[in-house]
Amino acid sequence: MLNFVLRRIALLIPTIIGISICAFAFVRVLPGDPILAMAGQHGVSPERYEVLREQFGYNLPIWQQYFNYLGSVLQGNFGNSLATKRPVITEFMTLFPATVELAFCALFFAVIIGIPAGIFAAIKRGSWFDQAAMGVALTGYSMPIFWWGLLLIIFFSGYLGWTPVSGRIALSFFLRPITGFMLIDTLLYGNWPAFVSALRHLILPAIVLGTIPLAVIARQTRSAMLEVLGEDYVRTAKAKGMSPRRVVNVHALRNALIPVITTIGLQIGLLLGGAILTETIFTWPGIGKWMIDSIFKRDYVVVQSGLLIIALIVMAVNLIVDLLYALINPRIRVK
Amino acid sequence: MKLMTTLLAASALVALTAGAAQAKQLVYCSEASPAHFDPGPLTGGNDFDASSHTIYNRLVDFKPGTTEVIPSLAESWEISEDGLEYTFKLRPGVKFHTQPYFTPTRDLTAEDVVFSFERQMDEESPWFNYLEGMTWDYFQGMDMPKYIASMEAVDDLTFKLTLTEPNAPMLANLAMDFAAIVSKEYADQLEASGDLAAFSTQPVGTGPFQLVDYQLDTVIRYQAFADYWEGKQPIDDLIFAITTDASVRAQRLIAGECDIMPYPAPADLEALQADEDLTVVEGEGLNIGYISYNTTEAPFDNPEVRKALTMAIDKSAIIEAVYQGAGQDAKNLIPPTMWSYDDATEADVYDPEEAKRILEEAGVTDLTTDLWAIPVSRPYNPNGQRVAELIQADWAAVGVTANIVTYEWTEYRERGKQADRKGPFMIGWTGDNGDPDNFFATLFSCSAIGVSNYSSWCNDDFEAAIQAAKTTSDQEERIELYTTAQEIFKAEEPAITLAHSKVFMPMKKTVLNYTLSPLGTHSFRYVDVQE
């Protein structure tokens, strides 16, 4: 097992180098100039422009810029934002909990609805429920997020007034972050109304962000379940006279869930990368919105370091999922 | 232990907030996060709203709703005969904010004023570069280092500014956001502790509100400063709820999550205007959308050709289709609300037949040109691509083929500045200080060629008029000179003056005394809420 872990970690090194090169190159092929983008409508004088280029090292050959960057990253220095001048890592750590909180709520929503819907559709294959559920799943999968989010806001927040329009908590609650997770912080403060408010603020964004994973999970569960239901051991169990409920719950479900868990693991990785559209519509102060704002501001440093940090996190999550999987399923280890 | 302390501090805060349940609160759904809270080096309107209009004051200010300069931290001032010496008498007893991180021991003095400007021009000062890669864009952009000969704190309450040459717009410059007055005592404290960067995140000013808390990309909280020199503000708590998407801002306003918002999307205006709990305040923006001919490029070097091409454009159709009623035909470079506006200027006429005739007479047939379309939506031009398409069609009718080109915004402006740029270039300007010099000299003086004179236009008579207007402080004479400048501009047509846009500010009916600023800034000084 240790061997397997070490091998998996060693494999990550070339990936990390590749990603750092991509992140670095990506911001440089974007049109636009970060120094000019920083200046206002008056622009910046040519002399000052040269001074700043030198100060930021943009006058150096591109490979040298890359190695300087890599060097400071290895020392844990991801640089300072060009716009706010604050360390990128500090901004990231401030905003990341919001993304994590939203991602987990979205996933929770997707799992508690997606798995039962998938199972039920498989058992009642071809029924009106199956067709309706899979139709809805397909619609959910192809839903333009921005439109879907606005639609929900206009209907539930604007028209019915049931949910708040955006933000993480009502403005009347002034709580300084402890962990950065609003649900946890409000409980730590023992402030029940604040907890309820935070929960209400999570509903719509979690639904919007969870829509696509929900569709994926439901369809995956259905097909895995259908496959397992056709296996010999299920037929044997039925032949033994076991109740249909027990056949599904004990024999079929356990095996069907293995591919579903892999799917969920992949979704976690994706969701942690920040949900640009959902965070933008709901003014959710997470890293997706932070990244897109920085791209518009041509904040090179935030974009390249942000990409790198996000990639590292996604890789770490995938690694953990892989390892857990190996723990559960020895066949993978051996291969 | 740390968690414990945080918890205790937080419960104290909660208790405070709970105790102040009766506090009057105003929530402003702002459009973007501020970079930080030191207005000196900043350039964005949202940066200034969050810093210079809440936390700070300037020596002089713009009278709310106008561009007229009025006393602020300076009670009065005198300008010497030769226009070179400005002596400001400071208001006595002006207090700086007391914050957990700073307790002032003295009132505002002339030392603070000297420091506020010196840090922006003295390259030896540790404050000139106190944040990595910072630039003092406005201070440099307004050419302040060129005009300032010296600054002196004559005594505690007298500040003397000596110029290298007379400069009539100087007073208006000092009312601009970058000229905010900061605390030298606080700067000294930070210098001693070595944490200079805190100056931008933990601000101390003399303004109507003091910063309580900023949560990145989420919310900024201010409270009214009890010892504010004009007296405490009617509201107790001012909250900026950062909401980047315009449609979401509108929904938040409708749902009552905020009291007031800037920059509504044109598509939402109707719904906002129809809501009976809301009012949409409307005003004229201090801006101009225009299209610069490259006057050094044939055939655009011929004023007759330029005028004919302008004549071929149906401006009213553009204003109708693109500005959707939120714009007005610009017959001059400066907007009508600005002093010295020449109302006698004749508006451009739309006459394709006549345009065609003039072009033929000038020997211009089968002209093919690039037409530069602004790539971003700006208040002065909401949709450059659409404007370009309409002009393309109008010009096709008089036999001119226009190829629309565009680039990413910074790239666009860089390429537009090049002397050998081909074709008319769409651009615009939003006034900084309400002085006509800020339009005429910034955009069309000879020295602005390669910087912001996209027409590469250098006309001796025009230049003489605007330079004379800059150096005299006689208002009547300045008006006359700018009138001349506008006449020359119209006769020469270095650019098509397209439109001035309107600005809208939707708010709840319970918001009282909000004044729309022609400069596009958002200030909540004097604002009250009805309970």
Automatic annotation (TrEMBL), chain A:
Keyword flag Nucleotide-binding: no
Species of provenance: Devosia aurantiaca
Sequence intervals crossing the membrane: 6-30, 102-123, 143-162, 198-218, 256-282, 302-328
Annotated ABC transmembrane type-1 domain residues: 96-321
Keyword Ion transport: no
Name listed for the protein in its UniProt record: ABC transporter permease subunit
UniProtKB keywords: Cell membrane, Membrane, Transmembrane, Transmembrane helix, Transport
Subcellular locations according to the entry: Cell membrane
Molecular function in Gene Ontology: dipeptide transmembrane transporter activity
Membrane topology: Multi-pass membrane protein
Homology family: Belongs to the binding-protein-dependent transport system permease family.
GO CC terms of this entry: plasma membrane
From TrEMBL, chain B:
Keywords for the protein's UniProt record, in alphabetical order: Signal
Family statement drawn from the similarity comment of this UniProt entry: Belongs to the bacterial solute-binding protein 5 family.
A GO molecular-function descriptor: peptide transmembrane transporter activity
Classification via PANTHER family: D,D-DIPEPTIDE-BINDING PERIPLASMIC PROTEIN DDPA-RELATED (PTHR30290:SF38), PERIPLASMIC BINDING COMPONENT OF ABC TRANSPORTER (PTHR30290)
Signal as UniProt keyword: yes
Protein name per UniProt: ABC transporter substrate-binding protein
Cellular compartments annotated: Periplasm
Annotated ranges, domain Solute-binding protein family: 68-448
Main location, first listed in the record: periplasm
GO cellular component: ATP-binding cassette (ABC) transporter complex; outer membrane-bounded periplasmic space
InterPro entries, sorted: Peptide/Ni-bd, SBP_5, SBP_5_dom
SUPFAM superfamilies associated with the record: Periplasmic binding protein-like II (SSF53850)
A UniProt-annotated Pfam family: SBP_bac_5
Signal peptide positions (record): 1-23
GO BP field: dipeptide transport
